[in-house]
């Protein structure tokens, strides 16, 4: 699933290319991707003639700002946005925005898990917690300190910290020297500071590398992100840790494959 670095990369790409464009019409062949599929005609009517005033990111959502409404696009497990693709292959295309200048934006999704919502510009997404890229240390310390929860599960909770998924939570915990099964309430102030710094540094590096492409994720021009080639722990089972040479191990945490170093991320119950 595209996470914060992938969505941020997509947003930055689109912002310089579709802001100020006017929507001619929208199209779908998959009503289920809309939060209220019964109102697709209403959404199409509102979008028609709308000018894209900004493109932003809320958690893992790409957000298109029109004059009075926002269109939120969550790419699910396998979705990707393609801007005026050179190929005319419409296989797995679920949604299209046609702009009046001839440019168009396609949503490609093999598994149909993407979601599109329409909201008023006056409200943000109340379901999302603090943004992982911008959360202050004091807010982050409060989120961690007020809960007794396995740290990997806590960091994946989009209602608490938004934007981090399975790839980057493992990379972050590796960087902060924290075992993924550690309880949040057992983290010292120094460890919480280490974790906060690791979140910022890992996400910023991943954005610089334009995200992680090893399966579905692509930029809207079809190019790949480069973070996978420099990952430190994710999907490196059996390989040597770059910090201490120990062998990377894999466990399941809440049914998710989880990668860690048994040496510098020792579990202390």
Rg, Å, rounded: 20 Å
Question: Strand order, biggest sheet?
Answer: 1-6-7-5
Q: Kindly report how far apart the N and C termini lie.
A: 31 Å
Please tally the β strands and state the result.
Answer: 12
| Structural category | alpha+beta
Q: What proportion of the residues is helical, as a percent range?
A: 25-40%
- Fill in the CATH topology of the largest domain: Helicase, Ruva Protein, domain 3
Task: Explain the overall architecture.
This protein has helices spanning 4-18, 40-47, 137-145, 151-156, 166-176, 189-208, and strands spanning 23-28, 54-58, 61-65, 69-74, 80-83, 93-99, 104-108, 115-120, 130-131, 161-162, 249-253, 256-260. It is of the alpha+beta class. It folds into two domains: 4-120, N-terminal domain of MutM-like DNA repair proteins (Alpha-Beta Barrel); 130-260, Helicase, Ruva Protein, domain 3 (Orthogonal Bundle). A four-stranded antiparallel β-sheet has the order 1-6-7-5, covered by helices on one side. The chain has a four-stranded antiparallel β-sheet with strand order 2-3-4-8, with helices on one face. It starts with a helix and ends in a 9-residue tail after the last strand. 36% of the residues are buried.
Features:
single chain; 269 residues; alpha+beta; N-terminal domain of MutM-like DNA repair proteins; 2 domains; 26% helix
Task: Give a quick summary of the entry.
The protein has 269 residues and is an alpha+beta fold. The protein has helices at 4-18, 40-47, 137-145, 151-156, 166-176, 189-208; strands spanning 23-28, 54-58, 61-65, 69-74, 80-83, 93-99, 104-108, 115-120, 130-131, 161-162, 249-253, 256-260. Helices cover 26% and strands 22% of the residues.
